[in-house]
Design a protein that fits this description.
By secondary structure, the chain is α+β, with helices and mostly antiparallel strands. It has one domain. The protein has six helices and four strands, in the order ααααββααββ. Strands 2-1-3-4 form a four-stranded mixed beta sheet. α2 crosses α4, α4 packs antiparallel against α5 and α5 packs across α6. It is globular and about 50 Å long. The chain starts with a helix and ends in a 5-residue tail after the last strand.
């Protein structure tokens, strides 16, 4: 009896170990996240351009070029990857407002875009105490909204919270792609560079 119990326990522990190994692979729909980030960043930049009276940017794309053969109609595929809900819509509006307000600071090289999809103050030289406080408040509010946006995208796509950093990285690529020439951007290795004009 005791021998049978020991064998049963060993089998149970072995099964649990095998299942633990199998469930390590966490679901992350990279293509969908890339499409979502591209759409959201483009929309935010267009809204910000409208608020500042600037020329809207063309749709950004950081996705690799692949063969366009598909049995699914393009319009249907586009509709399926659009991620939106009231929280995401409100965050897009708020971030667009922030971006419109931060445009002069980006142009003056006071702030830059990080490789984690956030904004960082780079240089406060020439700003008085009031201007410094206003810029810090704006950047803090914008970063809080960006983090909420990444969390909401994760929820909408049923992605585990542990994968939010991957979402940030994909959004960062799109923010940097949409940035204007001369803006500070952070490269993958952490170095800061001024974005060059694209041909």
């Amino acid at each position: 009896m005791r021998k049978r119990y020991a064998l049963g326990m060993a089998a149970t522990v072995g099964t649990a170990f095998v299942l633990a190994c199998i469930t390590v692979n966490i679901y992350f729909p990279e293509a969908t996240v890339r499409q979502t980030a591209e759409e959201i960043v483009t929309e935010i930049h267009q809204k910000a351009a409208e608020k500042t009276g600037e020329e809207p940017i063309k749709k950004v794309s950081v996705r690799p070029q692949t063969a366009s053969f598909s049995l699914v109609p393009m319009a249907y595929a586009q509709e399926e990857t659009t991620v939106s809900n009231p929280a995401i819509r409100a965050l897009k509006e708020s971030i667009a407002d922030h971006l419109a307000s931060m445009m002069p600071s980006f142009a003056a090289e006071k702030i830059g875009l990080t490789n984690k999809g956030l904004v960082e103050i780079r240089d406060e030289t020439g700003l008085n105490l009031q201007a410094k406080a206003a810029l810090r408040k704006l950047v803090k509010e914008d970063n809080a909204d960006r983090m909420k946006l990444y969390e909401e995208v994760a929820k909408a796509l049923n992605i585990e919270a542990s994968q939010i950093e991957r979402i940030q990285k994909i959004f960062a690529e799109n923010w940097i792609k949409a940035a204007k020439a001369g803006w500070w951007v952070q490269e993958e290795d952490g170095d800061w560079v001024r974005k060059k004009a694209t041909a």
